[in-house]
Design a protein that fits this description.
By secondary structure, the chain is mainly α. The protein has one domain (2-279). The chain is 80% helix and 0% strand. The longest helix is centred in the C-terminal third of the chain and has 31 residues, at 249-279.
Length: 280
Amino acid sequence: MTYINLILAILITRFAPGLCGTWGDVAFRRWHNFLRPGGDNDGGDDLRFYALIALPVVALAIGLALLHSGGWRFAAHAVSFVVLLCCFGVTDLRARIDAYVTALNRNDLQGAYRGAMTFGSEQAENWDQLHQRTLRAIAWAYFQCYFPVIFWFALLGAPGALLYRLLCLYRHRARHELDGVRLDRLLAILEWLPLRLFGLSLALVGNWQATMEPLLRSLKILTEPPAETLAKFITASLQGVAATREDTPASEVAELEALPALVDRALISWIAVLGVVAVA
């Protein structure tokens, strides 16, 4: 049933992308405001920090255990499915990529910068720098949206997926250095193995030789930020997509258009592996 829930949830992210991350974001903001009404004034309160993250996860785990023990297995699977949908991040990335590519094709610098900012990209001084930072931001958004959620849902069920998504959402809202460092450390731990498995799937569906080099190096380097590691995987797996590497918008469009298809192929490879595991 875990596999079926995953398939259905991923299909919904394709046909109704606005529904998935929105539910979770709204619920989390309300929970966050309930426990931390003081906002910036209570950043060092460890009890509230752990309560914000741990209470929903523990409550979900206990609730699912009670449903299963009481014979309400269908209700338990339904709850897990809804939680999984909420745990996926913002999945309407393709529409925003299309808008960004349209601005590039028009040589619209301001429009491209506005589009890049919707992905959380940093400021850039030229087209090539803008492209590299935007490609990295898009790839990271795709990764956080799907792959750690799928990994922890398959391994620990809905509580595992919820734990990861709560940490991600809270990281975006953390305004204190202590909270930010603590959350980065926790997220790096939860993302380490899914990121390497994602890199392996990129090697399988992209450029094998080019991607395996940074993947093997990443197994020895434990301190590199996950987003930088992923950027190396993506850049390597896309090698050969663009015919030129000039500092112009036109030369970047091929990579941007190829990225969603590359991620889709990696996602299909994960689904196939999980299907084999479910049947075995």
